[in-house]
């Protein structure tokens, strides 16, 4: 079988990363087309990849007959149009989060895909492909710990890009724990409240950082998340499940624990998201390529998962304003056959 010819749209931080992994570590696929609104950047990148072309218009890149599948790493506001174009052309697409930037358009995408009668969209919630999250999920599914009751999470970034605002802490950062909660507990989130403690004086002016998110799932399980995106320290993503018969925690950086002079002990904290989740991205993309080549098209979070996360984020941003818990409103999944 010949290699899957992939178009990568958006070659900023994440897109460039995907181009590199598809060109070096992923089998059964090659990057055939790259696109970016910075055309020079796309052209320079294409020049270094055998058989790769830069195409200036993302919709032309999707329609190109030499493209079998698409990786979308473009800015969120452009996703709706690009996803609909992938559906129109019947091209499988791995879409970096968010699916789209508002609930209405996310639902419209879910419905359009459902009308086609086959799945084409996978959403890039890469934590589901991380070894530690997969082990935690398997442990819960096997029932070793009994019924899970509570999830405590910490999501700390050393820094985030300039211009990152308080709503982005919800939409860009918390969205991962929203998906992790749905993944680990296998149920929807019913409400969300964002609490704003006194901000870190060392962070950018006007940013609510840290934030505490309190989620309640449909069956009443409690989830709390500390979000702190300007710690200045390192990349720390911890998740602890407390269950009927014990608890389990991941994200502790416990690789080598060193003891040294003068009476010190310790190890190295993971510095960034690439070091923490690089392998998860490799696994995600390899499994997606394999799924597309097999005709299944999707092996991971679906458009529904992207829509459900968008709905929780929207309620979260409302709670950020009001300080009150906000109910999450989701359409009934069985009202959209095939979703
Ligand atoms: C960023 O967009 C990511 O996706 C990272 O995984 C996350 O840790 C960070 O908070 C986000 O801003």
Automatic annotation (TrEMBL):
Going by the entry's taxonomy, the superkingdom of the source organism is recorded as Bacteria
Q: Which one of the record's GO molecular function terms can you name?
A: inositol 2-dehydrogenase (NAD+) activity
What sequence ranges are listed for the domain Gfo/Idh/MocA-like oxidoreductase C-terminal? 137-328
Q: Any idea where the Gfo/Idh/MocA-like oxidoreductase N-terminal domain is?
A: 4-124
What reaction gets catalysed by this protein?
myo-inositol + NAD(+) = scyllo-inosose + NADH + H(+)
* EC number(s) on file: 1.1.1.18
Give yes or no: UniProt keyword Oxidoreductase. Answer: yes
InterPro entries in alphabetical order: Gfo-Idh-MocA_inositol_DH (IPR050424), Gfo/Idh/MocA-like_OxRdtase_C (IPR004104), Gfo/Idh/MocA-like_OxRdtase_N (IPR000683), MI/DCI_dehydrogenase (IPR023794), NAD(P)-bd_dom_sf (IPR036291)
Q: Does the keyword Magnesium apply?
A: no
Family stated for the protein in its record: Belongs to the Gfo/Idh/MocA family.
Summarize subunit and interaction data from the UniProt record for this chain.
Homotetramer.
The task this protein performs is described as:
Involved in the oxidation of myo-inositol (MI) to 2-keto-myo-inositol (2KMI or 2-inosose).
* Protein name, entry field: Inositol 2-dehydrogenase
Which taxonomic lineage does the organism of this UniProt entry have? Answer: Bacteria, Bacillati, Actinomycetota, Actinomycetes, Mycobacteriales
